[in-house]
Amino acid sequence: MQKNRLFSGASLWLLEHKRRLVQLLAALLYNLNLPGFASASIYQGPLKAICVPGLNCYSCPGALGACPIGSLQAALGAADRKLPFYIVGTLLAFGALLGRTVCGWLCPFGLIQELLDKIPLPKLRKGTWSRTASWGKYAVLAVTVIGIPLGLALFGSQSLPFFCAYLCPAGTLEAGLPLLAGNEGLRTLIGGQFFLKFAVLLALLAICLFVYRPFCRFLCPLGALYSFFNRTALLRYRVDHSRCTHCGSCVQECKMDVTAVSDRECIQCGACARGCEQRAISFTLTDMLKNLPERSRETR
Predict the structure, then answer these.
(1) Domain termination site, one of 235, 257, 274
(2) HSE-up of 262 (CA within 13 Å, CB side)?
């Protein structure tokens, strides 16, 4: 009896914390080059040609793969010489399969913001101001990720990965600080560009104490890209409209700026499903697994 209770307790804990565990596992898998942190060096092996789904800096000492936003900027910067088929295809694949599930489950910088939100301080609630500010990430995507690199390339100037070079807080935290800490030679090269990025990082981390995931909601260009796929992604939360009473608890429970389940702002965190008394919201993967026995019987 006691053993069964312990097993049930462990199962309940895993169920409640599964998203956090997946976030931690993703951060580890993205950065398995652990010796890189000790040597303050960047892995340059063949895996660096492959993009990971979430925002994870290419120059992080532990990074095995490439960041999709950094890769997109690099590809657009070379658009005058070759078309960016690989990175566009990769982003389409991630988007069609996952949408912003990547943001809620597979992004290390998203995890950092959520942990900072756990610090018990007064929180600024979402509202019209935050829904308006949520359009900011589309401006960041259009101008700094696409417009500037592509424009410079097409007009024959040297390409500039503007977002990575001047704005990305994940790059400063995951790459800039660890490399400077372990490499004395790099510390002698610190200039205004680093101090600008460091100020952006500090400002965002401070805001995270009072506003839920501000970078994801207002500035992240990768979240903006994936949001275009959110309503049609294979893995997402869906509403069973035969059970839904339109009470609005799903939107109220969510800390993101959603107006409906799986809209452009939804990061598929599951808060809506936990808050739905009618049990009308479920994740598509859960539905697929439940239906496997029925489908297997049908094919016999």
Answers:
(1) 235
(2) 19
